[in-house]
Amino acid sequence: MSGLTLDPSAVIADLDELAAQSGGRFAGAKRLAWSPDWIAARAWLRGKLDAIGLPISQDVAGNLWATVQGETDDFLIVGSHIDAVPDGGWLDGVLGLMTALETVRQLAAMPEPPPVSVRFVDWADEEGARFTRSLVGSSACAGTLVPEDVRNLRDAGGVTLGDALANCGIDLDQATRATASLDGAIGYLELHIEQGPILLDGGRLASAVSGTFGVERHLITFTGQAAHAGSTPMHVRRDTLAAAAQATLAIRESSIARGGVATVGNLASTPGVITAVAGRTEMQLDQRHLDPTALAAMLEDALSACRTAADAFGCTMEVRRVFAATPTPFHPALVAAAREAVSAAGGDDREPVPSGPMHDATEIGRVVPTVMIFAQSDPPVSHAPIENSSDEALRVAISAYGRTVGWALANVDALRGDATQ
Ligand SMILES: [Zn+2]
Questions:
Q1: Which residues are placed with Cβ below 5 angstroms of ligand 1, an ion?
Q2: pLDDT tens readout for residues 90-120
Q3: How many Å lie between the centroid of ligand 1 and the Cα of residue 20?
Q4: pTM reported for the whole predicted model
Q5: Omega before residue 379 within 30° of 0, cis
Q6: Separation of CA 240 and ligand 1 centre (Å)
Q7: Sign of dihedral through CA atoms 397, 186, 76, 111?
Q8: Of 216, 255, 259, 269, whose CA is between 20 and 30 Å from 31?
Q9: pLDDT (tens digit, 9 = 90+) per residue, 243-278?
Q10: Which residue in 28, 132, 125, 167 sits closest to 86, CA to CA?
Q11: How far apart are CA 103 and CA 95, in angstroms?
């Protein structure tokens, strides 16, 4: 099979066509998972796949698949996600999805079938914007979705995730059977925008990605005593907000020292009025690192900082883990191939970067040889209508992706060996 040359202009034209449905590139994407807008976007996508003549199917977790039949039934996966956060950008998810679409379009037009089948996928509910649980479809395929954990998550209107899925014809209890969708998969390749400043700061148009950060999320509740702001002397207060604030700053220092990222995204205090000491404060903590040992150390630092602060302010504390994901290092040979492909496509061949955000590749990479390529974000902002990448960065990244798919199709035996381990 000869090399695969994608047409970046075709990808960008598809992106603009999709963006036009919500008012253009910078008008704010409207494709919230499981919503009528999302269903409409998927209908548009089905039309694109129909035009190529590919058979389409939806698995039990709501992921949309289309297959280019190869010489064998085992397959390479290309894809990303069409869902978006409310008022999202014009590239998040769909850059990778439209590039995967162009990939299967090119492969289907070739006189010879590829050596293995190539399956296009649109993962369902990557963002988790509505129910707070991201990577729903891909985690179902990877075998890490636990229906009981997510069934009663509610959106702002009180609708549960279980009911929203049922409205789209998906039975949450059956969704775990989506692991069958990966039977025979030998590799997964995903292109995405970086959504951060590392490539822009380094003057890099695109990069291979070495893996995605592991994540620890905890709710930490400090309990003290609510008391009158005027009559309670400072030395007798059991002030939970002061304790949480002290711990927050210590957590920040630890993440800097250990080379990870940590975010206290919210401190919610009660009674939450200007005239009372906060008797109870709940801290929402998110920590991430590519190295599991360093991530565990960051968590230990954080809990110890919270304990110290609770003691200092006469409070007690309680810890609840709400989410955890181990780091996903990507497949070394695919990462090396993607790095070479970026360089050959007009980028540089500097070290691959790790990803702070999780992606569908985080889940699929646990069970199938996987790699991602990032396109530079400029401005380095995502999940906002101003999200953008230069035309040059998009072209390099799209072309690098096509070259990496070409490498994978030329090296299916190497991938097969690793896929079955
Ligand atoms: Zn995304």
A1: 92-93
A2: 999 999 999 999 999 999 999 999 999 999 9
A3: 19
A4: 0.89
A5: yes
A6: 36
A7: positive
A8: 216
A9: 999 999 999 999 999 999 999 999 999 999 999 999
A10: 28
A11: 12
